[in-house]
Amino acid sequence: MQKYFKTQRLAAGIYTGIVIIVFIYTLCFMTEYKDLFGLKLKQNDQISFFHDYILQIFNKQIFTFAVFGVLVILLSFLLEVFGKIPDKFALIIMELSLLLCCACTAYALFNLQAIENYYAGLDFQYLRLESAGDYKPHFTTFRIGTGIYISYILCCVYYIVAIGRSHFKYQKNQKKGSTRNG
Amino acid sequence: MRNKVAGGTLCAVLLAAVLTGCGSSVVDQASTRAAVETQQETSEAADDKTDLSETVELKFNVATGNKSRTMTYNQESPLTLPDGSVVTAGMLKPMWSYMEKELNSKFSDVTVQDVKTSDMIQTESTSNFSGANIFGGESIAERLMFYGTEGKFVNLTEMMKTGYMPNFKEYLTKNPDVKSAITAYDGNIYHVPYIAELNQIARAFVIRESWVTGLLDAEGAAYDKNSYDVHYNGFYVGDNRRTGENGGMVSPKEGIDIVKKTDQDIIEIQNKLEVKNGETLTRALIQYIKDNYDYSSPSELFLGENAAYDIDEMIALMRCIKANPALLTQGKADVVWPLFVRQSNYREDLLRLSTYFNGVKVHGADSYTSRWYIDENGHIQYTYSEEGVYNVLQYLSMMEAEGLIYSDAYDLSEKTNYRSTLWGTDDGEAPSFGFMTYDWIASSTSDSLNPDTAVILPPVAKVNGTWQYYLDNGRAIKPDGWAISVAGSTEDQIHRACAVMDYLFTQEGSRLQNYGLPMNLEEGKDYTGPDGLKYPLFTSWVYETSGKVAKGDLSTFLRDWMGCLMPIGYQKEIGFEYQYTSERGFEGWTLLQNSTTNFATYAGKGVSGDNPNYYKMVPPVFSLTSRQKETIADTTSLDTDDIVEFMFNIVRYQAKGNAPQGAVVAKSYEEYAAEFKKRGLDIYKETYQAAYDVMTLDKK
């Protein structure tokens, strides 16, 4: 039983770590695209649209997801997941929360792909008219994001499985003990 | 049990992922929303929403730097209109009062009456233009566009889309060059410009006719004999002799060919004279004309429809004039000035002679700040730094050294109107005499100014690689205009301000701004111009009153007394100018219109040559982004007066070698170009090229 509990604590720890990374990522997400801010030329309309209506909205969304991820950590503390085997109530809350995290992460991954494709198709030739230098598209943020969110989803799954297994194993042991005593 | 948990979790995760994937991405959502917004905007292209049912108060801040030119009547004497109403100082000028009633508005002129437009804009920008509803004036289009993109002036494109300013919208549809010239870099329009009579000649060469005939045709003229020093060495000399293929035959008019018979250059001939004075210089010119041309009288080289003089011949004539003051003025003066500009702040008009030194470009539009031309690749090039311009400055310097240019014009603190002085004081107690200027036809040939002035064809020259007659000065979209303040206006005021601006593009409003009140125009009668078109006809009251109060200067009368023709957003018509043009002015129009003389236009049509864009005018202003403005402000210093002073130092001092201490005179083109480079020419050109690219991208 000790082994399962250790796994649960490890999963919670890993989850906490990845959520912090995700949170930092969402804060830094727009930095690489600051050159695309404030464009007014109609020739750069598509880039402005990309920056203002796609990137910024997506950034807000993933930031909200990251905040939710942080709340799940707080929930883990409240429900004492770091110190105890979760009871049924804690398990249901945690599993649902983590499933929601998975869904959000899947959404982020799916959109990162779509945004990267859109970005790759943008025409940057008129950007020089509004900024001093030649602009070269940057894909690093998207690639890092993909890596982070894949890790995040894996961590979530690991966490879900770990607490689920820990709970059910504990329940099983409890039943065995009561049968033996009876 | 373990398998059940893992399986259930995986299923749930996959389900969540699939559900998410089935939904649309943020890209699709944004695109859909944008499409819906665009569709809404398109469908919002509504009917005319102008509503004049309520009286709306509007404040105007329209600065011109001249209190006589504002909306307010600032004359000492009251003006009695034909209907008996009296306009006194402090009231709105009659045109504005009329417009106020027509548009059911209450106009207030809040302009500081003498303030310069640039100062007004500078001051008002600090309060976000909240002090008035409409701001306007001269040479502010760039500022209006810039502040417009910053959200400080109303986006007129949006207003037109939603049903306001229908007449202006229609005008822009019919005049795409105007639309493109006033569109800011973000694709929107924020101001309504003053548009001169497009596709018409602007300035032309105007001279005292009798001086030419008196010098060249008169038998036994008593020429002056004071000695004359020469400095100018000639342009058509050495390898550039005017003969054969190089301008040996030119056509001032269809069907008329003028042949120059030899490769002589009159400047060389005059310079070689042992004795140089009024008599020898003039006789040499007369002999030269006889040797080279088949004119019945020598003055025909310069006057009339067969004129075929080049820049050297023009300078030779100027020398003769300079050297014969006593003959030409009947002894009234011992100095005459062959070439002058109207006033000191027009001194850059002198540079326009560059066209006749192998077609060197200086101004791409009718503005001294328009120092660009469009090259054969469609790129803009900065003119003032080019070697051709430097060479022209050297030629002008030699002319200056000979006293051919009226020298007071270099002093910008001098405010005198030299045209009035040098042409309008012949019979005065202290007469001054000038010969030629490059100026507007109507005002320069006014009978009240001097009855001897006449328009001549421009010098013939190799322009754009082809020998031709060319005036690089067509009428342009002006950098003047007005815009509506966002911070200073309520919604009702914005709508009414739109109605005011739009009114000047209605037939009625256009007549009002171009010609004056309906009571000033003959009812049911028209004026037929030399172009065959009909225009509103002024009543005799207009001529009589302008004669009484404005020395017959109809233009000044309409501006300073009536409030018309102000540099605000409207399309100027030539019908007004025709009606105050003298007979000699009309002869000038006819001379130019019947000749092969071409001039600059936005369409840029002309004899094919080295550069297909040579004849095209550049936009009056370029709309710069904040980043571009910062770049220009931080890294360049070419928009300052001192660069022009630096250029005129060459004109004033180079040939004479008398530069005062502290005056920098470039001794070579390398030194000259280095000064421009030092002032950030490369970045300046790059930035403006980028701005020009934006303006022309849609046309490519």
Largest sheet of chain A: none
User: What number of domains of chain B?
Assistant: 2
- List low-confidence stretches of chain B: none
Instruction: Tell me which oligomeric state these chains represent.
Output: heterodimer
Summarize the structure.
With 182 residues, chain A is mostly helical.
Structural write-up:
The complex is a heterodimer of chains A (182) and B (700). Chain A has 182 residues and is mostly helical. Chain A has helices at 2-28, 45-78, 88-120, 140-181. Chain B has 700 residues and is α/β, with parallel strands linked by helices. Chain B has two domains: 56-198 and 482-579, 3-Layer(aba) Sandwich (D-Maltodextrin-Binding Protein, domain 2), CATH 3.40.190.10; 203-473 and 583-623 and 637-679, Periplasmic binding protein-like II (D-Maltodextrin-Binding Protein, domain 2, 3-Layer(aba) Sandwich), CATH 3.40.190.10. Chain A binds chain B through residues 40-43, 45, 49, 53-54, 57-58, 61, 95, 99-100, 102-103, 106-107, 110-111, 114-115, 117-118, 126, 128-132, 153, 156-157, 160-161, 164-165, 168-169, 172, and chain B through 1-2, 5-6, 8-10, 12-13, 16-17, 19-21, 23, 25-30, 33-34, 149, 185-187, 625, 627-628, 631, 690-691, 693-694, 697.
Structural descriptors:
heterodimer; A: 182 residues; mainly alpha; 4 helices; rod-shaped; B: 700 residues; alpha/beta; D-Maltodextrin-Binding Protein, domain 2; four-stranded mixed beta sheet; 21 strands; 38% helix
Task: Please describe the topology of this protein.
The complex is a heterodimer of chains A (182) and B (700).
Chain A: H1 2-28, H2 45-78, H3 88-120, H4 140-181
Chain B: H1 2-22, H2 26-43, E1 56-63, E2 79-80, E3 86-87, H3 94-102, E4 105-109, H4 117-125, E5 134-137, H5 141-149, H6 156-161, H7 166-174, H8 176-182, E6 192-195, E7 203-208, H9 209-216, E8 249-253, E9 256-259, H10 266-272, H11 278-292, H12 311-322, H13 325-328, E10 337-339, E11 372-374, E12 380-382, H14 387-401, H15 418-424, E13 434-440, H16 441-444, E14 453-456, E15 460-463, E16 466-471, E17 477-484, H17 491-503, H18 507-515, E18 521-528, E19 534-538, H19 540-549, H20 554-562, E20 570-571, H21 574-579, H22 583-594, E21 598-599, H23 626-635, H24 641-654, H25 669-678, H26 681-696
Parallel strand pairs in B: 1-4, 1-5, 6-20, 10-13, 16-21
Antiparallel strand pairs in B: 2-3, 5-17, 6-17, 7-13, 7-14, 8-9, 11-12, 15-16, 18-19
Helix pairs in contact in B: 11-12, 14-24, 19-20, 23-26
